[in-house]
Amino acid sequence: MKKNKWKKILSLFLAFYISMSAFPVLVAGKGDEPENLYALSAALIDGESGRVLYEKNGEEKRPMASTTKIMTCILTLESGCLEEIAEASEKAARMPKVHLGASVGEKFYVKDLLYSLMLESHNDSAVILAEHVGGSVEGFAEKMNEKAREIGCEDTWFITPNGLDAKEEREGEEKVHETTAENLAQIMRYCVCLSPAREEFLKITQTPSYRFSDADGKREFSCQNHNAFLSMMEGAISGKTGFTAQAGYCYVGALQRDGKTLIVALLGCGWPNNKGYKWSDTRKLMEYGLNEYSLHSFDEIEFSKCPKEIPVKNAKNKELDKNSKISLVREKGEEKKILLKEGEEIEVSYHGKKKLTAPVKKGEKIGELRYKVDGEVWYTEDILTAEGKKKIDFPWCFEQVVKRYGNVEKN
């Protein structure tokens, strides 16, 4: 009888174990995140804040191929030389395919070469632009690296303006033309969201086709946009493909929908004959961002998170024994937003003075609100005095004594 009882208990235990194993979705973990990406390195970031929403080996350095050209394009646009004429050098004419086929000494308008650069990814056009804007390829690379540092992309190093695989010696150290998925996404964010030339960048990268001639009108050229992502997803606004033997297929693209700006960067996303891998990964990451994240404003946080007023010592008041306080206000700038996943919250804390000593000026900064997500500060807001307070001085003290003495005499 006991044996039968233990058999029943064991059977119930096994049934319970099997039933639990059949429902892995109930187990806490990262089941919602994109899986089985082809890319060796990938990143999805919030274009509004720059926050990384997803990464796979996102900080791993890899060659970036022709995605390099987004930096070449934005630097040329910001240089303001679109109506100038650039001449093809011998170095430019030697560039391998894919190329425009420019001859030594042939001249072009800079604005036309930008379409050649971004739509057809012509390597010789990149060199012509680099030499015109930077004086030389090396000089232009310095500008590229300077801009990368400015954007905060410390793990990026540019050697060429077109993304061809390259190495060089710098101060006894071998440097490789490379970036990370996270850095590449941040560079694209700069191009489409932050640069003063962002509108021109978007116009060029969204153009389906473009025709132009050399500056002398001797030859005509036709360019077709090879960024299939533009017609793949609603809201796609920009992108750049790339491929070299070392880099594999690479891609960086941007999408705007439902008030969200999402940017995807892929490095090492397959090798021939797997051109389609990058489109599969891009769609998967973009859909993840659209479905799992919602937009939140930092203005949603109540002002109660910091003091509305603080005490002021040695301040002039109507009465000698009255405690003085001063009101505070938030200095609001342009509204800032951030993408958050369900369950994520914005934490806000006040960092500043708890009391003041007169004199105090109106509009004086006495602290700041810090807004954090996952322990990282994404936004700060200055806290200012709403009014001023004068310091107690001898004339004021004398006046108060007279007032008090006068009241005593009357009594």
TrEMBL record:
Binding sites annotated in the UniProt record for substrate: 240
Signal peptide: 1-27
Keywords in alphabetical order: Carboxypeptidase, Cell shape, Cell wall biogenesis/degradation, Hydrolase, Peptidoglycan synthesis, Protease, Signal
InterPro entries cross-referenced by the UniProt entry: Beta-lactam/transpept-like (IPR012338), Peniciliin-bd_prot_C_sf (IPR015956), Peptidase_S11 (IPR018044), Peptidase_S11_C (IPR012907), Peptidase_S11_C_sf (IPR037167), Peptidase_S11_N (IPR001967)
A GO term for molecular function: serine-type D-Ala-D-Ala carboxypeptidase activity
Domain called Peptidase S11 D-Ala-D-Ala carboxypeptidase A C-terminal: residue spans: 341-387
Catalyzed reactions per annotation: Preferential cleavage: (Ac)2-L-Lys-D-Ala-|-D-Ala. Also transpeptidation of peptidyl-alanyl moieties that are N-acyl substituents of D-alanine
Residues at the catalytic site: 66 (acyl-ester intermediate), 69 (proton acceptor), 121
Enzyme nomenclature, EC number: 3.4.16.4
Enzyme kind, highest EC tier: hydrolase
Pfam families with a match to the protein in the record: PBP5_C, Peptidase_S11
Annotated function: Removes C-terminal D-alanyl residues from sugar-peptide cell wall precursors.
Family (UniProt): Belongs to the peptidase S11 family.
Name of the protein described by the UniProt record: serine-type D-Ala-D-Ala carboxypeptidase
UniProt lineage: Bacteria, Bacillati, Bacillota, Clostridia, Lachnospirales
